[in-house]
Design goal:
Length: about 800
């Protein structure tokens, strides 16, 4: 029996009398089973069965409905026809039973309208046996796979379409379609998935939403697998664009580094959006400077840039590898034109109107309503370069042109759409702001570093009291420069002040605050105050600065109130080390034998608190002791407490006799992690002791008659040191200073000469009244002594002590002539 006949008369109607005999037969019965009415009317209905009658088969008046499952019926030619049999009782007047009406339909047949509905369904429909052999497909499915139903029936899916055994975009973790079909056939569990593949005969990849379910018989056995799918390319690619933008939100601008941000831009859209990205920036932008004002130029002018990043999916180019290199965009090029006019350009290798159905919907790419003016540009030469399309976007931020970014497709066949242009411009806009932020940060950080380093000592001062080595490292590239600082200040009497401090905060404000504090410390050190008194004056100064320099609400606070400072003084004559701390970590003192010398002191309050005292502590150190002064950035860590870190620092300083410069390097390497968040300063000092024969000390009687004797003692000592060229000046300044001490000071009076890098003369007395320099008039008998001392020496001053004061002056000595 042909299929056309089945479709034209798929159903047989049979009237069964109460005694079970056939009393009526339709033409559909003849077409379905081959029996005519003459053949079957009057015979028992059970003669139609090819086997035993199933339970409920209408044999009596009480039967209501036959089973819905397939029942084997006997065809007139002896064959068997599986059919669906249903029965409804017939009733006469008074409810008298007249028999049944039985309908018979071939098990596999469908109503004509249902057939046509499935055939004409816009969704792709298909049925396959458990071995994935084709049993049926509709016309839409045939168009997707470019095969008719007759071409695929009975053939295995994997044999006909091996390309569906792999994902078109494995980087998206797409599940191969045939694997999903086989899984449903094996497990009997339905599934849903989205697959991306290129239809047979098509040029572009499509995204399909597919549902796959098992088809079971009455016993529940999986006899087939069915599926339906529809093209959701527009929705899928729109979602992919959103995912790329979401990835860009967390992936572009993570570091305040221009090159790093350019590389992030190059990597984000590859390979999900394009295959190749290149980012070109002006050289000034890479240096943190303002881009050139005339950077936009003219379309007919060449533009010189630097290739900051490039990433390709084809050859796996790493954008972090290789140095940046200069590139020139020739006059009239797309890049030059885009930068000149400030608009993006899309280039396609073929006319989108000639490509048939596109991946994003018929005609969407070619719809001029979606494209901005001037786009797209059809450039057949792109194909010669192996490109299917290219989007060129100028990088602009805050009104400044920073460079240009080019998005290219190499391997994927689908052309760019107007929505792709929007995505490219969104990525470029986000990256441009991040690059400009990084550029501005680099400029501010470089300015702050320059300011800070200009305020730090550029080299050790000329002094013999200590050997010094220092290191300063700013925070990592993700942080701003901080306010750590240190200083080495020569003092009178061959002494030296060692200072280290820290201003809370980062950036220019912290660097400027550090500069103010360092200048204040140097100024107070010139007064020669003891450490505790100096910190008290510094604390008052910080309080005044906080009130006098209070910024407006839109400026960042200056930050001196969050500062700490450690001020120490070492005297090589007495080997006394005096220190006081304003909230700063105490120094480590390592003896020449490598043992740690405890510092019996407690840090005072940070600067700017006011009203709280600072305490000075004094130690006598053996010659060759190692001192380590540092900021908290060297010892603070999230993984370990400060005490443990200070112990680690002590272990790094175990070799107290090592050369200081390499020791500095090894300590910084051992203590600082690669990813630090704070700057750190380290000052290593090895103490020296001035030889006893380089110091001469005499007691002076408070009588002017003693002046000639003291003067001679001084000259004789200078001659004994071999400093005859300094004898004359020494005689004059000793005479003046001793005479002033006898006349205006109080006993006891002492004279001390120190031979160091300079010849130092000190006169001490018990009076706290300090002399001052004044200019004597023509007929004054006095007032010229200190003026004479100031003119003849290279420095002079007064320092106050607990016993009174000391007036000192120094003569610079010429370095010894090498033999």
């Amino acid at each position: 029996m042909d299929r056309a006949g089945e479709h034209d008369a798929p159903t047989a109607a049979v009237v069964v009398a109460p005694d079970g005999a056939v009393s009526g037969w339709s033409e559909g019965g003849r077409l379905l089973l081959g029996w005519s009415a003459e053949d079957i009317v009057g015979r028992p209905v059970t003669d139609l069965l090819a086997g035993p009658a199933p339970a409920g088969f209408p044999e009596s008046h009480e039967s209501a409905r036959a089973p819905a499952g397939p029942i084997p019926l006997r065809h007139r030619d002896g064959s068997t026809v599986d059919a669906v049999v249903t029965a409804q009782p017939l009733s006469g007047t008074g409810g008298r039973g007249l028999g049944h009406v039985v309908t018979v339909q071939r098990w596999e047949s469908r109503p004509v309208i249902a057939d046509r509905a499935f055939e004409q369904c816009p969704f792709a429909l298909g049925v396959y046996d458990p071995e994935l052999r084709f049993l049926w497909i509709n016309a839409s499915s045939g168009r997707v796979i470019a095969h008719s139903e007759e071409q695929v029936l009975g053939k295995k899916y994997r044999e006909l379409f091996p390309e569906f055994d792999r994902s078109l975009f494995p980087e998206r973790d797409d599940k191969p379609y045939t694997d999903a079909l086989a899984q449903v056939a094996r497990t009997g569990e339905p599934t849903r998935l989205i697959t991306v593949f290129q239809p047979r005969g098509g040029d572009y990849a499509n995204a399909w939403a597919t549902s796959i379910w098992p088809v079971r018989d009455t016993e529940g056995t999986v006899r087939a697998v069915a599926n339906w799918g529809f093209d959701m390319s527009a929705e899928y690619w729109a979602r992919q664009r959103l995912l790329i933008l979401n990835s860009a939100s967390g992936g572009i601008g993570r570091t305040l580094d221009v090159i790093g941000t350019a590389r992030e831009l190059a990597m984000t859209p590859v390979p999900r959006f394009v295959d190749l990205v290149s980012v070109d920036l002006f050289e000034e932008v890479l240096r943190g400077e303002e881009p050139p004002a005339e950077s936009a130029g003219h379309p007919d002018e060449a533009v010189g840039l630097v290739r900051a990043a490039q990433h390709s999916a084809r050859d796996g180019t790493d954008p972090a590898a290789g140095p940046t290199e200069p590139v020139t965009h020739r006059p009239g090029s797309v890049a030059a034109r885009c930068m000149a006019i400030g608009r993006s350009t899309v280039e396609l290798a073929a006319d989108p109107g000639q490509g048939g159905e596109w991946a994003f919907g018929p005609g969407l790419a070619a719809d001029p309503a979606h494209w901005p003016p001037g786009n797209p540009v059809i450039d057949e030469s792109l194909a010669a370069d192996g490109l299917t399309g290219r989007i060129t976007v100028p990088l602009r931020a805050r009104g400044a042109l920073l460079g240009v970014v080019v998005f290219s497709r190499l391997d994927r066949p689908e052309a760019f759409t107007a929505d792709d242009l929007i995505l490219a411009e969104e990525l470029a806009a986000k990256a441009a702001v991040a690059i400009d932020n990084a550029r501005r940060y680099s400029r501010e950080r470089a300015t702050a570093l320059t300011l800070q380093r200009s305020l730090l000592p550029q080299g050790p001062p000329n002094q013999e009291a200590v050997e010094v080595a220092s290191r300063y490292l700013p925070g990592g590239t993700g942080t701003e420069v901080g306010g750590d600082w240190f200083d080495v200040i020569p003092l009178s009497g061959a002494r030296v002040a060692l200072v280290v401090g820290d201003v809370v905060g980062h950036g220019l404000h912290a660097a400027a605050s550090m500069g103010r504090l360092r200048t204040a410390v140097r100024t107070l050190a010139d007064v020669d105050l003891p450490p505790d008194e100096l910190l008290t004056h510094l604390d008052d100064l910080v309080l005044h600065l906080a009130s006098d320099l209070r910024p407006d609400h839109h400026f960042q606070p200056t930050g001196e109130s969050g500062a700490t400072c450690l001020y120490t003084v070492y005297d090589p004559v007495s080997r006394r080390f005096t220190l006081a701390s304003a909230g700063h970590p105490l120094p480590l003192v390592i003896s020449p034998d490598g043992t740690r010398t405890p510092v019996p002191a407690q840090p005072g309050p940070p600067l700017g608190i006011g009203g709280l005292p600072f305490e000075a502590t004094e130690l006598e150190l053996p010659e060759g002791s190692l001192l380590a002064l540092f900021t908290d950035g060297l010892v603070e860590s999230r993984e370990h407490d400060v005490d443990q870190r200070i112990t680690d620092l002590q272990h790094a300083l175990t070799d107290a006799t090592a050369s200081l410069e390499p020791l500095c390097d090894s300590v910084m390497d051992a203590m600082l992690p690669d990813r630090r968040t704070d700057d750190a300063a380290l000052l290593l000092v090895r103490t020296r002791a001035l030889a006893r024969h380089h110091v001469a000390d005499w007691s002076v009687e408070p009588d002017t008659a003693q002046v000639p004797r003291v003067r001679k003692l001084a000259v004789d000592q200078v001659d004994a040191w071999g400093l005859e060229e300094a004898a004359f000046v020494t005689e004059l300044v000793v005479s003046e200073l001793v005479t002033n001490a006898i006349r205006y000071g109080e006993p006891p009076i002492r004279l001390r000469l120190i031979r160091d890098t300079a010849l130092i003369c000190e006169v001490s007395d018990a009076s706290s009244t300090a002399p001052h320099l004044r200019r004597a008039r023509a007929f004054d008998e006095g007032g010229r002594g200190l003026l004479l001392v100031a003119q003849l020496t290279q420095g002079w001053g007064t320092r106050h002590t607990t016993e009174g004061k000391t007036i000192w002056c120094a003569q610079t000595l010429a370095p010894p002539t090498p033999e």
